[in-house]
Amino acid sequence: MPSYRLLKEAKLIKTDEFSSVFNFRKRIATEYLALHYQANQLQRPRLGLVVGKKTAKLAVSRNYMRRVLRELFRLQQHEISAADIILRVQKKFDKRDFQLIKLEFNALVVKLNQRLARAEINHDKGHEA
RNA sequence: GAAGCUGGCUAGACAGUCGCCGUUCACAUUUAACUUGCCAGUUUACUGGCAUGGUUAAAUGGGGAAGCCCCCUGCGGGUUCCCUUUAGUGAAGGGAGGAAAGUCCGGGCUGCAUAGAGCAAGAUGACGGCUAACGGCCGUCCGUCGAAACCUUCAAAGGCGCAAGCCCUGGAGCAUAAGGCGCGGAAUAGGGCCACAGAGACGAGCGUAUUAAGUUACGGUGAAACGCGGUAACCUCCAUCUGCAGCAAGACCAAAUAGGCUGGCAUUUUUACGCAAGUAAAUAAGGCGUGGUUCGCGCUGCCAGCGGGUAGGUUGCUUGAGCGCACAAGUAAUUGUGCGCCUAGAUGAAUGACUGUCAGCUUUAGCAAUAAAGCCUACAAAACCCGGCUUAUCGGCCAGCUUCACUU
RNA sequence: GCGCCCGUAGCUCAUUUGGAUAGAGUAUCGGUUUCCGAAGCCGAGGGUAGUGGGUUCGAAUCCCGCCGGGCGCG
Q1: How confident is the model at residue A100 (pLDDT cuts 50, 70, 90)?
Q2: Which range among A9-13, A67-71, A115-119, A123-127 has the greatest average pLDDT?
Q3: For chain A, what is the domain count?
Q4: Does the CB of A25 sit below 7 A from strand B?
Q5: What residues contact A113, with CB distance under 8 A and at least 6 apart?
Q6: Alpha carbon A28 to chain centroid distance?
Q7: Per the domain annotation, does A4 fall within a domain?
Q8: Global pTM?
Q9: How far apart are alpha carbons A35 and A103 in whole angstroms?
Q10: Which domain range does residue A76 map to?
C-alpha cells in the first residue's frame, strides 16, 4: 500500500537546488503551468513551487494555487519518476479552473515520464557505444 | 409609518475520507550521557563483562508482495509477511483576520551610543481630560458642510370651490436637526508674495471737494482700497516632543574550503657565540608546474591544537498595556476590584483538497407552497508583539438619535 | 523590515522650483500639391493634469488620504 504522505524530503528547499534545476534548462509548458525538471539520484521525486507576484497580486490566490499544486503532486507522487521538479505558474487560475488544472498537471506528468524514460535509454546507449 | 444618520456584533453550519503544522500523554525501538548492583583483572582508583537494571535527552523513515476483514465502495482503513535502515505507533486537544492589508503614526522588546546643555533636522499645535505613548480617543467651544421635512418665493398642468384660496407637481432661496468634516497657535519679531482690472496693491502717495492746517470726507475696479489688509498647508517666530537602528534586532551551537595564531616533525649552506649540545641571523638547496634541454619564470612541506567565522541549525517565539463576566468611580474616553479562561507559531513558508445534507444568494417556471439550474461566496491570509489611523468589503442581526406625518 | 521616485492629448515629453493662457513633436482627420500615392505646406479636433478632499481670491503646481507603476538598501 503506497503512502500519500508528503514529507519534507519531497520538497526542494535550498536556493542551490532551485538554481540547479533552472540551469538544467529542461522545460515543459502548458497554458497555465511550466514544469522545469532534472533527474535526481533519489528514490522519489521532489517538488518546488514558484508562484510569482506577477501572476497574481493577492496573497490569497497565490496561496490557493500553491496548495492545489501541492495536493496534486501529493496524490500523484508515486506515478512520477525520480526527478527534481519545479512547477511555475504562468497564468492565474482559481477554483473554477480546478478540473482544467488537474488535466494539465496529469498531461505534464505523462510527458515528463516519457521524456525521462527516453533520456534513460539514450544514456544507456551512449554507455554501450 | 416615511426619510436621513450613528454605533455594536457576526463573517455560513454539521458530518465523512485523505493530507499539512505545533502541543501534551502512553507504550515500544535505537543512540548517547549519567548512575546502581554483581563478577573478573588489578589495585585503592581505573578497565572489561553482565543485568534485556534505573534516570534523562534526542530521533523514530523508505520500498515491495499476496490473501483476508471492515465500511459511507474510495486515489479508503485495518491485519499479515519480506527487503533495507540507527529508526513508531496510538490517543487527546488546537490551528488566520476584522481588517491579518497599506506601512501612515505611537509604544514594548533587543543591540549600539550616551556627563550636562545647546545647534541642526523632523514632527505636533483651540481649551480640558484619558493613556505606556501617539498625529489616537472622549467632552466642550469655534468654523464649515449638511433633508424629499419646515419656512419664504416663483412657475405651470390638473382637481375642489361662486370667489378668496386649498391640494398636488417642479425650480430657486433662507436658516437649520441628527450627523459629517476641519495640520483650529502667532500677521506691531522680521523677510517674501498678492496676476488681470484699477489713478493707486501694501510704502504711502494721487484726484475731487473742504479746512487756519495732510484737517476732514469721498474715490468706476477688485478677493482685498486709503487701514498699521490677506497669506504662516511661503520662509519664519513661539510652545511641546524626538539618541540611532531594527527579530534579516540580539544570543548560542557549528561543517567544508581558504587564511590567522601556537606547538611538534622534516630541511641546504654560511656566519657569530660555545668544548659540546644548541641558540640567533641570513641564505639557498630540494620538490612541483611551464619548457625539447641548460638558463629562466611562478609556487612552497607534513601533523596536531586553538580562536574568529561562512553555509546550516537552535533560540528569540508567543502569557500579553491579554480575553470574558460582574460590581464600583466618571457626562465620556478610561480606571479600579473580584472571579474565570489559555487562544496559530510556519520559515521555498502549515491552516488544504474532495464529498454529502441543511441554510444563504442569483436566475428561470409558478398566484402561491415549491421545483430546477448555478454559486459554494464579499474584502481578503499571520511572519517579534501590542495601541491607533487609513483603505477594501457580500450579506445578516441588534441598539440608538433627528425631522416629518398619522392614531390614541 | 526600511528608504525613495514618478502618473499631463492615442504615444513621447515641456509647463511644477517661483501659483493666474496647458504647450510642443508624433499619430488622427480635412484641405493643398500629384495621373495616384509618399514626403512637404496650411488648418482642425483631441485634456476637468491618476483619483478624492482641503488651503487660497485663484491649484497641473502647496498640504493630506487613496489608486497604479518603478527603483534602491539589508
Answers
A1: confident
A2: A67-71
A3: 1
A4: no
A5: A79, A80, A81
A6: 10
A7: no
A8: 0.75
A9: 14
A10: 9-128
In a domain, A1, yes or no: no
Q: What is the pLDDT of residues A7-40, one digit of tens each?
A: 666 677 766 677 777 777 788 888 888 888 877 7
Q: Is the ipTM of this complex over 0.90?
A: no
Grid coordinates representing A79 are 506515478
Residue A71, classed as helix, strand or coil, is helix
Residues 28-47 of A with CB under 7 A from strand B: 43-44
Strand B–CB A71 distance below 7 A: yes
The reply to whether A109 Cβ lies less than 7 angstroms from strand B is: no
3-state secondary structure of A93: coil
- Beta bridge partners of residue A28, listed in sequence order: A35
Give the pairing of strands A46-50 and A27-29. unpaired
